[in-house]
Amino acid sequence: MIAQILTPRMMLIGGDAAKEVALVMHKLGVHRPLIVTDPFMRDSGMLAHVTDPLDSAGIRWDLFADTVPDPTTDVVEAGLARLRLGTFDSMIAFGGGSPMDTAKAMNALAALGGKMRDHKVPKAADKAAVPLICIPTTAGTGSEVTKFCVITDTETDEKMLVMGLGCLPAAALVDYRLTMKKPFRLTADTGIDSITHAVEAYVSKKRNPMSDVYALTAMRRLYTHIRIACFEPENEQAREQMMLGATQAGLAFSNASVALVHGMSRPIGAFFHVPHGLSNAMLLPAVTEFSAEAALDRYADCARAMGISPEDEGNQSAVNRLLDALRRLNEDLKVPTPKDYGIDEGRYMELLDTMASQAIASGSPGNNPRVPDAAEIVELYKRVYA
Question: Both 30 and 75 in a single domain?
Answer without folding.
Answer: yes
